[in-house]
Amino acid sequence: MTTLAPPVTPSVAARRNRRRRPRAARSPWLHVAMIPVTLLWLSPIVFVLFVAIRSYDDIAARGLGALPASFSTDGFATALTDGGVLEALGNSVVVTAWAVFLSLALSSVAAYALSRFAIPGRRTILLTMLAGNLLPPQILLVPVAAITEAIGIADTRTALVIVQVGFGIGFYTFVLHGFMRSLPTEVFEAARLDGAGPGGIFWRIVLPLSRPSLAALAALATTWIFNDLIWAMTVLRTESKFPITAALLNLQGGFASAWNVVAAGSLIAAIPTAIVFFMFQKQFVSGLLVGANK
Amino acid sequence: MSAQPSAPARERRSRLARVPLLVWVFLLVPFVIELFWVFWPAANSFSLSLTRWDGITLAEPVGLQNFRDLAADPIFLTALRNNVIWVFGFGGLSVVGGLVLAVTLNKPGPLVGLYRSAIYLPMVVSLAVSGLFWRVMYAPEGPINGTLGLLGLESLERQWLADPAVALWAVLIAAVWRQVGYIMVLYLAGLKGTDPTLEEAAAVDGANAWQRFWRIVMPQLRGVNTVVFAVTVIDSLRTFDIVWAMTRGGPYNETQLLSTYMFQQAFTTGNLGYASAIAVVIFALAIGFIITYLARQARTED
Predict the structure, then answer these.
(1) Structure pTM?
(2) Which of residues 185-224 of B touch A (CB under 8 A)?
(3) ipTM > 0.90?
């Protein structure tokens, strides 16, 4: 995966040469510096992979830091079955899918209302919603746990989905609002002349046009919700309901000396978000930039 | 907006003013969900912070006693000190690292895409899992001690996560590993928005690379800097997962941050009122930066 340098027209090249501008990207020093940095950056992932594919005996005999002298999938097998990683992965997928879907559904209608209608105080509402997402979660944990108890949904995956939706909605609404506001008014006028109501305009026009920003937010929300630990630990108590992050910490307690199992479990936990990342790399990066780059 | 709107503008506004019932539903359902699950709990934390509560019996009002106790609580003070170190250490290293990498990898070239991907790959790994990755790295017989041994630096080998002198920094490095990619992406986007002709003009005037960066490029990154600054501080005050996964605040509370101590007080010890008081302190520390971020977003909304 190499990015090619854009073609340089002769005149520009000539001007550059006359000024003798250092062409950083072409200098060998870039690679002299970046190849070690890149290897260093990838080393934790590589070492965990090494540990995960070694057998327990190999690790016990030669230490955790040694290069693999054995190949075994025991770590993965044990993590998935006895370690409960498979079950936890299922919980994570279900919670993430529902939470992402509901968050985006609710925030897109809210963003539509705020961006296309003269709601009184809409700017205040919008910034209040965004502010909610910026609050440190710690200020919510104790009362949220108490509320889930009070309404009888404590220790359920439903509660985790609801909490994730409630906390994320403000940010997604803010981002989608920015996008929907930039849609050309003419489209709306045309649809209105055709007799479409507010619901029809949302469904047939706004939603299809918002697909790129919805995709970026979906990529981002998926990694956020899938990777969450603190809400899961606040809302859930029963181990069989734990998502992968919380389950892994238990795994680490239960298999403290079986490093290959812990390493294999960690890698399995990283795979789903890695897939999202590689499939939607462009959306993921643009998702990171929303709200930050304007 | 002018005082005398033109005819079409007035017309548009009057048409906008009729907000159909369905649109109110569109707005109010999400808004009420957020009010109920975010703002209502947040308000409750403030009132809980003035009580002693175990979650079972009725909360007993104690006024500001929790805050007085915090001021004399050595673990809280360690957590507060660690959080300050965290803001500067984690924030400083990831911002400097991210900026340096962004400037280095700004111009396209062979392998540059590969380098960028490698740097932001850790971001897909959750903070909890990053913590587990680095537990492997820091294990007594692990790769880091092994590498030091190979280099003949046995004297530097140690129990990274069990040694109170270095444990906090060991966790911090792991967190920086994951954050640098994010900051780099933000700065790469910021650099894309800078005007290259200004830099060329400065080069003609004889400014060296260092001067060009500080005098020409940096001022153009002001907007990104504000966002990076606010995001970094807010993130630092929220940090929980990676510490919890690596040390749970140990050894001897030496890696305790406000968030981990708050969580322990709330859900391990069951001092819900005291935990809420810690949460209020976290909020008080974060609010200035939240407002900075909001103010910037409000300006871009105009």
Answers:
(1) 0.85
(2) 185-186, 189-190, 193, 200, 203-204, 209, 223-224
(3) no
